Amino acid sequence: MHGTRIPQRKRLRLLIGDITRVAADAIVNAANSRLAGGGGVDGAIHRAGGPGIMRELDEIRARQGGCPTGSAVATSAGNLPAQFVFHAVGPVYRGGRAREAELLASCYRTCLEMAEERGLKKISFPSISTGAYRYPVDEAAEVALRAVAAHLTRENTRVEEVLFVLFDKATYDSYARVLKQLEY
Ligand code: APR
């Protein structure tokens, strides 16, 4: 079991699977800054969640014109096994010198703060930015796991469980390797 430096109650877990099939209080989407839907996990979330999610995003877009990279917006979760979807906008990878790591970490931190604000216990993440946005998986895994572990080791967190639901074995193996190296 991973998690030796994290208090017993507060877990960070890695799974292989489809994030739309795993129950959580909030499911995180890897969205784009137009909040316009797309392929990958974004497409899967809209397909499984139903059209109400896009209607809420339309309202958010009308109000604030999208979502900046590194940030996230919340909608309800429609038919998904969750209360909320947090639509996080990861950076497109452009070689690593365009603040990608900072922006990617900010996605995870923002979603964890949104979970705290709502008193949520369980949140699930996909591997943000490592598909269409081409972030190298090993690098993204380190940023993601460090950001989440830092949050879970905080004194005042109410989040009890963070799941990474990774779609393929190569991505899972990469996260597992990095998690082991970080010795959490
Ligand atoms: N469950 C979990 N993970 C999934 C699922 C799923 N159902 N479907 C795909 N993934 C994985 C991909 O295999 C990849 O490892 O999610 C990871 C992120 O890939 P993308 O979904 O392509 O996300 P990202 O790289 O952040 O690109 C975002 O893609 O479709 C668009 O609208 C989206 O423009 C945005 C861009």
Low-confidence stretches: none
Q: Strand-residue fraction? A: 15-25%
Instruction: Summarize model confidence as the mean pLDDT.
Output: 95
**Helical fraction:** 25-40%
Tally of DSSP helical segments: 5
Largest sheet: 6 strands, mixed
The arrangement of helices and strands along the chain is EEHHEEHEHEH
Number of domains: 1
Strand runs, count: 6
Can you identify the CATH superfamily?
Answer: Leucine Aminopeptidase, subunit E, domain 1
Which structural class do you get from the secondary structure elements?
alpha/beta
CATH top level assignment: Alpha Beta
What would you call the quaternary organization?
Answer: single chain
Biggest sheet: strand arrangement: 1-6-5-2-4-3
Anisotropy-based shape: globular
Which terms summarize this structure?
184 residues; binds adenosine-5-diphosphoribose; Leucine Aminopeptidase, subunit E, domain 1
